Each structure stands twice: as C-alpha cells, then as structure tokens.
Automatic annotation (TrEMBL):
UniProt-recorded name of the protein: Putative phosphoglycerate mutase
EC supergroup of this enzyme: isomerase
Organism (species): Neolewinella aquimaris
Cross-referenced PANTHER family: BROAD-SPECIFICITY PHOSPHATASE YOR283W-RELATED (PTHR48100), HISTIDINE PHOSPHATASE FAMILY PROTEIN-RELATED (PTHR48100:SF1)
Molecular-function GO terms, alphabetical: phosphatase activity; phosphoglycerate mutase activity
Cellular component, GO annotation: cytoplasm
Amino acid sequence: MKIYIVRHGETDYNLNGIVQGSGVDSSLNETGREQARHFHDKYKNEGFELVITSGLRRTQETVQGFIDDGIPWEVHPEITEMSWGEHEGKSGTPESIAEFNAIKRGWSEGAIDGRVGGGESARELSTRLQRFIDHLPDRPESKILICSHGRAMCGLVTLLLGEHISRMNEHTHNNLGLWIGELKPEGHYEFHLRNDRSHLPGPVKPGKW
C-alpha cells in the first residue's frame, strides 16, 4: 500500500497566526485554493483509489478536485486536528506561545499527558491516530490520498514510521506539504518524500501552530 499524506491548504487563520485546532472549521483562502489547484494539476493522474479527509472543511476543500474527479471519498474523524482548548480561534500571545513551547518540550521529554490550553494531550492524539493507522492494512486500495492537519500530521507520520508520539516535533511540514510512504513487511511505513512542495510555485512559508 502506498499513501500520500498532504496538509490542507492555507487559511486566513494560518496567514494571520490565529490558532485553529479541531474546534475551528475554517475554509481555504484564495492562496489555499490556488495551492489545491496546483496540487491537483500535478497528481490528478496519479491513480488514487480513495481520498480520505478529516471532518473539517479545509481538508475537503484541499482535495475537492480529486473528489470531483469521482474518486471515492471517506471522512475519518481520527485524523482531525489536535484540540488547542481555550486558545482556538485566538491570535497567539507571548503567554500562549510560551505555554505551547513548554508543553511541546514536555512531549519530547515523554510528558505526553500535557495539554495546551486544556485541550487534547499527545497521548489522546496518539490513541485516535493509531486507530486510524490500524485500519489501513486491511483496506483493498493500493494507493490512498489522505488530507489532514499540521499537528495531527506530525503525530500521524511519527506513528506510521513506528516511532513513539514523543518524537512528533521532529516531523514538521507546511501547507500542502506532501509525504509519500509505503507499507513495509515489518509493519511500519517508509517515506521517500517528506514535506514536498515542488508542486507549488514561489517560496515556502513556515507553518504556524
């Protein structure tokens, strides 16, 4: 099985440094829609047999071109964005950014029950992402396109690599960054493309939250 995992396109929340998370159902902005068009143009003949998104509209809008092509589409809530609790829908402040960075450091050190703003812990994120991963080997499709979110994808690719969730800070990406991986006999996935944005024009902007 080959999986193509892409982060959703840019939203105004991304552009303006406003926290999204699982509780904010934002749409792509014009840049995000353009990114989605470029991605579809490059991969429309890739032969995807299934498209999977979270339940949030920014993931669906990113891959809508493939859905419109008639490729079967499924919504899997397990791959939705992490909950950032009380910070969702708000601009990052020095205090909230400091909290986020401290919790992230804690996750890397194994304190995976830490929560940002009373939201979701890394352990809870890992549990639901693992449920999603566990169902993949039983699927009949051989080539799947998956569209998810920034922090959720950090966790997803970490677990797909067979690593502990505490290492998810090592696997970052940008809007419309693409990872391509293949299931190996040992049971983990090997990625030969990581955060690729060669399908997009212009410079790469760093992602936020």
